[in-house]
Amino acid sequence: QVQLVESGGGLVQPGGSLRLSCAASGFTFSNYAMSWxxxxxxxxxxxxxxxxxxxxxTTYADSVKGRFTISRDNAKNTVYLQMNSLxxxxxxxxxxxxxxxxxxVYWGQGTQVTVSS
Length: 117
Known about the structure:
By secondary structure, the protein is mostly beta strands. It contains no helices and 11 strands. A hairpin with a 4-residue loop joins strand 7 and strand 8.
C-alpha cells in the first residue's frame, strides 16, 4: 500500500522557519522524483520545488528561491522541505508528490502551514 505522510506543518510568525517531512512507503522511493506542492485558499495547487530521484538536481519556484530547500534521504524514504524567512503568502496546504516518469504519481494528504502574526 502506497503512503506519503507529511508532517511538520503549523502556525509560524512571518520571518520564521518550519521543516516539513514526507515519509514514503509502499514503493521504491529511490526511483521517484519528489516534489512539494502547495495550495492557498481559493487558489490552484502549485509546484513549489522538485528533487530528482538521486537528489542531484533540484528546481524551485521563483517565489521561494533562496528561502526554501528541498532534500531527501533515500535510506529513510523521506523527503524534507526546509522553509526559512516565511511570508504570509506562503500560507497553504503543503502536499508531497512522488513521480516516476509521469507513469506513476502519488500524493500525500497534505499538511497545513499558516504564516501569521
